[in-house]
What we know:
Order of helices and strands: EHEHHEHEHEHEHEHHHEEEEEEEHHHEH
Number of helices: 14
Bound molecules: 6-O-phosphono-beta-D-glucopyranose
CATH superfamily of the largest domain: Dihydrodipicolinate Reductase, domain 2
Amino acid sequence: MDVTFIILGATGDLNKRKLIPAIYNLIESGRVKKIAFVGLSRSKVTIEKILAGAHECMGKVDRKAWNTLKKSSYYIPFDLYEEDNYDQLKDFLEKIEQKHALSGNRIFYLATLPQHFDTVTKNLAEKKLTKTKGYARVVYEKPFGHDLKSAKKINQCINRVFSEDQVYRIDHYLGKELVGNIALMRFTNRILEPQWNAEHLESVQIIMEEKLLVGSRGKFYDSNGVLNDVVQNHALQLLALTAMEPPKLLTGNYIRDAKAEVLKHIKIDSVFLGQYEGYLQEEGVEKNSTTETFATLKLSLDNPRWSGVPFFIKAGKGLDKNEVSIHLKFKPVECLLSEACPADTNYLTMNIQPKAGFEIELNTKVPFKKNIVKPVIMSFSHENYFPKSPEAYENLLWDVMNGDQSVFVRNDEIEAAWKLIGSIKHNKVYQYPIGSKGPKELISWNKKHGINWRV
Length: 455
Ligand code: BG6
């Protein structure tokens, strides 16, 4: 399979830390045999410098694979708003496709800010860069807008010139191995799917905790907050995958239909917000900013499968842990023990990171006691079974090459998620110390909503 990757926004961190390493891995694993890589941005840099930056993040590389990438890589200074630049790019692509004997498959990757998406989309189509002998696919990096209105505008612009099957909206969480595993595990194991409903489940928790602060992204973060930054996309996608009805098949549009149904119908019942102490001193942050760096949400889905089962989301920066996980809490069983009933019910945990795997918490007999149980954990460690796994972006780029859209977000999903987040009214924002579990006022919110966080 051969392809030309064209990265718009090539001097950014994403290209250096994720995209070039992913492309290199595709070459190194033999999945991509012939390639051209074209970086575009306004800066005056060289391709050598861009590759060297990526190399630094990657550590040791296989010399042969790295040389293949090096020999096929180019950089062009490019102004997204200069129409002539698109004409020049078209000629350039035709030349290098000929030089490397490529069949004209093109992947345009917009690693730029969303305010440029309209202009780039329009120019790629009008300047006929997507008219090629092979396929032309366009990838949009997140954030996809900043609210429902802006996302709708981008979608309208895209849908005017491209068909939905050419469009790949990235949510990198969907490229993570364990996220890809949620639906597979649920629908291929008889012991799970029949329990996946309100008859057996009491609640669902989705946790996305980071120790990281906003760092150099203060300006961006301050106009978004945790709700836009990770809840609207990553957390809601995890929720949609967990809550969706069984799709007819676990492929492209069937999965997206099922997820979209969840996102269109789920409701937010309560929100609690926090901001880490010292956030106002971060570079790029407004002096009196009330932007949230922490949020918990209680949501509900009123359908036969989930009626009465609350979904909880917790996400934040500056916390005491790095942990992304989903926890299904089961309802209690009728207690038949004569001495003491089980202290807690069963849990199924899907650990996305850092320790990818699953855990099932079961009650088991305590030695020397006749009628007493204790919760124990049966666990599967992904790393132990599969020591080598692809990185999220490697999975994602491979899927774009193969035209597999199942792990990309469709226009209606994005709009439904923005609509949901937009429905949150202004809330008080409570302070919390860096490295803590969130604001102390969370305790009464937890109590009120009957939630006992697993992490
Ligand atoms: C990004 C957010 O989408 O996801 C970041 O903008 C966040 O703020 C990151 O840190 C988390 O991704 P990962 O893959 O490191 O868990």
